[in-house]
Amino acid sequence: MSTGRPNWQLTEREWAQRTEVVGGQKLTRPPGETGNEAFDAEPLSTPRIPRFISRTEWRAAEPAQTDTTHFWPEWGGIAIHYEGGGKEMRPQHTPDTAIPHWDDCYFQVRRIQHVHQNPLPLVGGEKYWDISYNYLVCHHGYTFVGRGLGYQPGANGTRWHNERYYAICGLIGSDDPQPPQAMLDEIKAVADWVRAYDRAGANVKGRHVKGHRDFIDTKCPGQLYSYIGKGTFD
């Protein structure tokens, strides 16, 4: 895997052939598919490969621990989040310099991880062992790998829901415009990904994509909630 800046002009097939590690696991075909090399068929295997930005690429800090033991997403599914109040969509995507700029998506994800691992004493907030989301999707249509595949998230509000639902965060705030199609399409791709690779929601009758507000009293996931109701991510 290249540790340098990704080539944002990669075709879908090139993205599929990328050597990528998510959640400590090399990406392979979904269960039941055959073939000796990952994603060597044309057309691409379902689901579409999300446009992953690895933890190495966004310069993630090391997690304090990990937890794959207490996670059963087949009995839950997928929880959609947003970043809360204010404007969160960053105008830049790829960094202008070797060090990500505060106004680009890379810096935004690093800031979220830092706050989750090091909450400010006067502000409060829970201290997490890593960024609390499994994946974070920017409005440019790319997916930052958070805790990744197979790891229990910390963002869903209760231990019960963290043990059963993947946490996917759209990097959008309440004061931002409606989410662009690129973000919606990429969230759908990530949802399909965890369904195919970790059977998210497989044992649940009915709809298994929820909003954070379905679990606790919160406005999260803001504008994204209406798209859950429309079945955009199913």
From TrEMBL:
Residues 23-43 are annotated as: Disordered. This is N-acetylmuramoyl-L-alanine amidase. It comes from Streptomyces lasiicapitis. It comes from the Bacteria.
